[in-house]
Amino acid sequence: MLDISPRTKIDTALAKLERALASGDIEATVNLFQADCYWRDLVTFTWNLKTLEGHEQVRDMLGSQLAATRPSTFVQDTREAASEAGGVTEGWFEFETGVARGYGHIRLKDGLIWTLLTTMTELKGHEEPKGFRRPMGAEHGHDRNRKTWKEKRETEAAELGYTTQPYVVIIGGGQGGIALGARLRQLGVPTIIIEKNERPGDSWRKRYKSLCLHDPVWYDHLPYIPFPENWPVFTPKDKVGDWLEMYTRVMELNYWGSTTAKSAQYDETTGEWTVVVERDGKEVVLKPKQLVMATGMSGKANVPKFEGQDIFKGEQQHSSQHPGPDAYAGKKVVVIGSNNSAHDICAALWEAGADVTMLQRSSTHIVKSDSLMDIGLGDLYSERAVQGGMTTRKADLIFASLPYRIMHEFQIPIYNKIREQDAEFYRALEKAGFMLDFGDDDSGLFMKYLRRGSGYYIDVGACDLVIDGSIKLKSGVDISHLTENAVVLKDGTELPADLIVYATGYGSMNGWAADLISREVADKVGKCWGLGSDTTKDPGPWEGEQRNMWKPTQQEALWFHGGNLHQSRHYSQYLALQLKARQAGIEIAVYGLSKPHHLS
């Protein structure tokens, strides 16, 4: 029997796919896929972020999009080795559409396509000025009217938003707004970033002083400028802030700090937003064609209501407002919550000499940082991965190639291994009374993050303080009311307090849209984030992608961008290309625009 190499299998599958698509034969294309197939498309075919599941959905998408997409030239990327394991053959490929170039990943079972990833890399005729297209910088020759780079930048900064209008306004100048602004800058899309804080990075600087990135450096690079090789694995918040400030200057972003967005209104007739902002004490009216809410992955701070909050004589803060532990040495503090912020704040308060109690009202997923770095992220985002030839782009695409519908199946073995390795640690936590979970289906941290954006802590030391009682723990009971100097629980327990910290999370991003635009528009869009997995805090119906993130919404010309540094980096590419295509006047037909979802 002839032994066919993985590369040959991929070549054969791609050739069949190209022939079927080029001939417009939808049935022939569908028959190249397994019955339980998944096709994840990032912009190229759907002008959307969309995962198609099964023959019927693939057939429907192609019936709508194939003629206009004009895909061609599916060629295996010979720089990457095709591989085979467990009956699955996988490889990488390049391809084109009528208006774009793309890159993809394919997995085969029994010669048929099991998973397919197609992503847009660049728009033809609108390529980024890099490599052989990079700008000269210097202008050789002579010209009495020439302007220096500095003069050009000063002119642009003085005119944009006043005598000339941006095509895009981004509300929010944190990591998300900055990453997207950098992408749009390279695509030649005039953009202004609006940020209420004075300096880029202040959204990090102003958090509690012990805050540090829990994700490792390899996971956190920004577009175009990776962190240096000697950058720490876990970046302290003020160092992140300084990096973002440097990045904003070096990438020549039009960043309006100390600026407040007051209102926004869309004119369906002109296809234009009117965005009123306050800058330098004066109102400025901006008229962009596209508006991006880049306020993180979360909305407004969620502060629960309890009887007696108005009579409590101590301080009450949401975790986002907590200044740090210095003023609370010797004080009694109750931290309500048991996720990342709660643990970080409790540990810092203990170090400062506070008497701190963590109130855990529902179970929490815990994973030790070292275990997550090694077992959960090590193959893609680690020095080991880099030394093995892994690049950030390839790691991002491997992660993107796993359809959300089946991603938990890949995560469960990882967390089973972690549970086995750290069994003693977990037993000690439970003995201390801590309520543990590993997600509704034991799939761990990443699925919890994607489904609900909460419910976990990456342990960098606080758990030892819970285990030994240094951080007091009260779990499994909710709050009855507050008195002048205590938190009273429903079982009658009184927790004396000088300070209450509400580490109780955030609402949906569309809450910011309600404030800035209108409740009507916020409801038209619906909730942001979540997959519709019908698990805790992520009710159905199944969406298959993050709701309303990085893709068209029910409100024309309104977009949402956010997430962690990895997502800000990766998905900013696809959002920027969608915005550039509209600026360039490319004909766009969005497939599968999501219906609004209003459950929290």
Automatic annotation (TrEMBL):
Gene3D superfamilies attached to this UniProt entry: 3.10.450.50, FAD/NAD(P)-binding domain
InterPro entries: Auxin_biosynth/cation_transpt (IPR050982), FAD/NAD-bd_sf (IPR036188), NTF2-like_dom_sf (IPR032710)
Disulfide bond is among the record's keywords: no
Keywords assigned: Monooxygenase, Oxidoreductase
Oxidoreductase is among the record's keywords: yes
Domain of life: Bacteria
Pfam short name (any one): Pyr_redox_3
Start and end residues of each stretch annotated as Disordered: 127-152
GO molecular function: flavin adenine dinucleotide binding; monooxygenase activity
Protein's UniProt name: Flavin-containing monooxygenase
